[in-house]
């Protein structure tokens, strides 16, 4: 699992760049969401514009680092902001989503899922080792391992011709260990799918001992925007994971196109 995760992330990013035929209505919805004050205040979307407006050889890692610097210093999105984003996307991108069986009827479930997993994703994204973001360090280690700077061009080439294995310099780092600790604590059901003996074989027994490695810190600001009380989810998590993945990929695709 540890070997494939970075490639899955890169493949998702690259497919978001190439996915065709997003309607103008959807694009405009995404644009307005990126410019929405609440969204701008918690997700720092503007910092990604350099990446999106660049060309296919623009380096990705520095843009991601810059984006995280703003994101982690900003308060977390409120559940109300998440709900508002989801309902506007399902309305504005209904054509794109309906072909995959996702409709406004799924709003509550999609919002609840994002509300549930967003804090975990945010805390992993904002881990630091020393003064550097773990995500940045991992991207740089990956670049060293494959001998290439990540850009759309090099990612496309890597997807066609993926490295057969990744150095433990990429997979068994203190950063990845702490990310695993967070997932295990927040989403025990996901962690229970992982065969720890294979991790131990690759990274050693201490990798799964649950302790936070020294030098690893959480940089995310602990406040949540506009804490105006609960807009809590309904816990009805019956949406198929396929629909959720569809929703996420349409949103990320459209976001890239919208901001371009
Ligand atoms: C969603 O749409 C409503 C109505 O147009 C707007 O008031 C609100 O700001 C939008 N929310 C986001 C997050 O863009
Ligand atoms: C991509 O943009 C950079 C500047 O950011 C420029 O130096 C380079 O020549 C461009 N490459 C292509 C293939 O257009
Ligand atoms: C792993 O990192 C160490 C120290 O930075 C370096 O000496 C070694 O060459 C790296 N190994 C691989 C396979 O990249
Ligand atoms: C947001 O909703 C989730 C579940 O839907 C809940 O666990 C969490 O406490 C809520 N967060 C806030 C800040 O209200």
Automatic annotation (TrEMBL):
Source domain of life: Eukaryota
Signal peptide: 1-16
Keywords: Signal
Protein name (Swiss-Prot/TrEMBL): Uncharacterized protein
């Amino acid at each position: 699992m540890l070997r494939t995760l970075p490639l899955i992330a890169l493949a998702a990013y690259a497919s978001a760049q190439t996915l065709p035929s997003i309607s103008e209505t959807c694009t405009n919805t995404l644009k307005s969401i990126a410019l929405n004050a609440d969204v701008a205040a918690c997700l720092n979307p503007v910092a990604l514009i350099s990446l999106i407006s660049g060309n296919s050889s623009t380096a990705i890692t520095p843009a991601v680092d810059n984006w995280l610097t703003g994101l982690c210093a900003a308060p977390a999105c409120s559940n109300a902001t998440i709900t508002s984003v989801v309902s506007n996307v399902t309305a504005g991108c209904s054509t794109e989503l309906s072909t995959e069986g996702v409709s406004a009827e799924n709003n509550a479930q999609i919002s609840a899922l994002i509300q549930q997993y967003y804090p975990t994703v945010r805390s992993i994204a904002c881990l630091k080792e020393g003064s550097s973001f773990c995500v940045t360090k991992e991207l740089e280690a990956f670049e060293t391992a494959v001998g290439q700077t990540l850009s759309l061009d090099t990612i496309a080439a890597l997807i066609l011709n993926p490295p057969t294995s990744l150095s433990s310099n990429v997979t068994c780092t203190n950063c990845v260990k702490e990310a695993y600790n967070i997932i295990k604590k927040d989403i025990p059901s996901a962690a229970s799918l992982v065969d720890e003996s294979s991790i131990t074989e690759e990274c050693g027994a201490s990798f799964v001992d649950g302790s936070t490695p020294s030098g690893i810190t959480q940089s995310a600001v602990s406040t949540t925007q506009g804490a105006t009380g609960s807009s809590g989810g309904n816990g009805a998590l019956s949406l198929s994971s396929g629909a959720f993945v569809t929703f996420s990929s349409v949103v990320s695709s459209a976001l890239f196109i919208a901001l371009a």
